[in-house]
Design a protein that fits this description.
Largest sheet: 2 strands, antiparallel
Strand content: under 5%
Helix content: over 70%
Order of helices and strands: HHEEHHHHHHHHH
Number of strands: 2
Number of helices: 11
Length: 276
């Protein structure tokens, strides 16, 4: 089976199996929404009372324009969405290791489908699962004062789609050569923790100053979640977002995410296709 239609048919079968597994596991879906609500209450409203508004300025000594800033809960909500995409997409690729460890992957690989289509199906499945769980979180947005227009809704969905594809491709790259769940979880944490901690602007608007802060800031520029959060924040807050909180233009954010998607996907699919 070497045709494009056969490639897509194999990928669709793998995608459908992964999505069906999510739909049958309601506790997994409900748990994500509940966890988000807890984080919003704990971080957003808890720390928000201490921090106040983010990005506000009262005008300079020359009487510059005053910027009102945004409430802290609205500032971190896009970061929560991006973190959910990251954890869900990376964890969803664990099914590759699970299938390999328990022999199900061997049955898939002897079927008349290419290994490339299996890897692409895993990427599509992880991306869809991350999108479904993140879209449920968007239902919370109106309760914290974030309202979407038609255009902003489309933009948010586009950013979530590209971010999900990028981090799922990274997950496939990590999982492509792992043979045990324990090994995957260890490597996965070694990859995820720096990404979560060094995503510039995730929960704090800056790393501060100094040599170490400069080093963190440079490393954060290689982090896909940094660009995802920046793009999501601009798409969700729109004109209400202070210019001091904008890291890059949303076009640049999306372009970098697309480049990283290809950079993760190509070696991930190749490594998976070469496995024994």
């Amino acid at each position: 089976m070497t045709g494009f239609s056969d490639l897509m048919a194999g990928a669709y079968t793998v995608w459908y199996r992964d999505v069906l597994g999510l739909l049958k596991d309601r506790s997994r879906v409900i748990g994500t929404v509940v966890m988000t609500a807890i984080m919003i209450i704990g971080l957003g409203f808890g720390l928000g009372g201490l921090i106040g508004k983010v990005g506000a300025s009262g005008g300079g000594p020359m009487g510059g324009m005053s910027v009102p800033g945004v409430p802290f809960v609205q500032f971190i909500f896009p970061a929560m969405l991006a973190m959910t995409v990251l954890t869900t997409a990376m964890q969803s690729t664990m099914s590759m290791v699970y299938d390999r460890e328990f022999g199900f992957m061997r049955k898939i690989l002897v079927a008349p489908v290419s290994r490339t289509s299996v890897a692409l199906g895993k990427v599509a499945g992880g991306m869809t699962i991350a999108l479904i769980q993140t879209l449920l979180m968007l239902l919370v947005a109106p309760f914290i004062g974030i309202h979407f227009s038609f255009d902003s809704t489309l933009l948010v969905l586009l950013v979530l789609l590209v971010l999900s594809a990028t981090v799922t491709s990274l997950g496939v790259l990590v999982a492509s050569r792992q043979t045990s769940q324990q090994g995957f979880m260890l490597v996965n944490m070694l990859v995820m923790m720096p990404i979560m901690m060094l995503s510039l602007g995730s929960f704090l608007p800056s790393f501060g100053s100094g040599m170490m802060a400069s080093a963190f800031r440079i490393v954060s520029q290689l982090n896909p979640v940094t660009y995802g959060i920046d793009a999501l924040r601009q798409a969700m807050l729109g004109a209400a977002m202070p210019a001091s909180l904008v890291l890059h233009s949303i076009v640049l954010d999306m372009l970098v995410l697309c480049v990283l998607f290809v950079a993760f996907l190509v070696p991930g699919v190749r490594l998976f296709a070469k496995q024994d």
